[in-house]
Amino acid sequence: MRLTLPFLGSRRAGQRSAGQRSAGKKRGAKQSIARESRKATKRRARARWLGPTLRFGAPVALAGIVGAAGYFVWSSGQIQAASQAAMRAAVNATVEAGLSVQHVSVVGRRETGRETLLKALNVGIGDPILTVDLGAALERVRDIGWVQDAAIERRLPDRLHVHLKERVAAAIWQRDGGFVLIDHSGAIIGEEGMDRHRRLKVVVGEGAPEKAAHLLAALATEPSLEERVIAAVWVGGRRWNLRLENGVDIRLPEDDLPGAWARLAQLERDHKLLTRDIEAIDLRQSDQFIVRLTEDAAERRRTRKDET
């Protein structure tokens, strides 16, 4: 007799089901591990990308924010105002510390007017000495007609020191109906001080200042005759005509001016030529001189001839 054991079959089925469940669990575990591995890989990649971004991107972003804020503050004028306020405060501090202009000392000033010099310096008592623009002041001082050269220095705490080298007036140049002083180089000094130099020779004509030094040197070789000259006219850009104090005109040559002047001095010593009734003496020819009489002297001479 065959026995049927139904529970045995169900047990085997149960065993198969448990095996299947175990296999499924293993597969699920493997899949879960794979998913976690993929997630970890993504997290590591994202971390690798995010790290440099945070390190470099954050400062750039911060710099951008600061720059934008700075531009706003600058464009609104707040920085300039703050800077100017700070500068004013610093300057005021130097003044309170005693660094202000209290004295202006000058060496070499004989002809330059006091007010003219102070105007050129453009400083006042109490001005902050450290803010005085010495370069600009020096340029203005050198523009003064009497000043040939100059130097300016700060002598802290409270003194500006000016050293002047002045021009020496050599003649008076008549131009456009006016008169200005000039030095030996022909540089124009100006009108200031004219009353102190009225006895200087007057030179007339375009280009006369540049040629005056040569003329004055020649005239100085005969002092007694030179003092009788009151004016000189530069003629045609080539030569000089002199006017003496008694109204006599002397026509000098283009060449050898000193020689002609020495010849005239000798004639005066020998013949007292300039005390006679003459209007002009022409020395343009080296081997002779021509004398032109005044109208009265010429008329008297004609009368004597008629009587004879």
Entry summary:
The protein is α/β, with parallel strands linked by helices. It folds into three domains: 61 residues; 68 residues, Roll (Ubiquitin-like (UB roll)), CATH 3.10.20; 139 residues, Cell division protein FtsQ/DivIB (Rossmann fold).
| Beta-strand percent range | 15-25%
- The quaternary organization reads as single chain
Beta strand count: 12
For the terminal residues, how far apart are their CA atoms? 212 Å
Spans with pLDDT under 50 lasting ≥5 residues? 1-19, 45-71
- Mean pLDDT over the residues: 80
Descriptive report:
- The chain has 308 residues and is an alpha/beta fold.
- The chain folds into three domains: 16-76; 99-166, Ubiquitin-like (UB roll) (Roll), CATH 3.10.20; 169-307, Cell division protein FtsQ/DivIB (Rossmann fold, 3-Layer(aba) Sandwich).
- Helices cover 49% and strands 21% of the residues.
- The chain is built from eight helices and twelve strands.
- It has helices at residues 6-75, 78-96, 114-121, 134-142, 208-219, 223-226, 257-271, 295-307; strands at 103-107, 147-155, 159-166, 169-175, 178-183, 188-190, 202-204, 229-235, 239-244, 249-251, 278-282, 290-293.
- The strands form two sheets. Strands 6-5-4-7-8-9-10-11-12 form a nine-stranded mixed sheet. Strands 1-3-2 form a three-stranded mixed sheet.
- Strand 11 and strand 12 (290-293) form a beta hairpin.
- The longest helix has 70 residues, at 6-75.
- It starts with 5 loop residues before the first helix and ends with a helix.
- The relative contact order is 0.05.
- Residues 1-19 and 45-71 have low confidence and may be disordered.
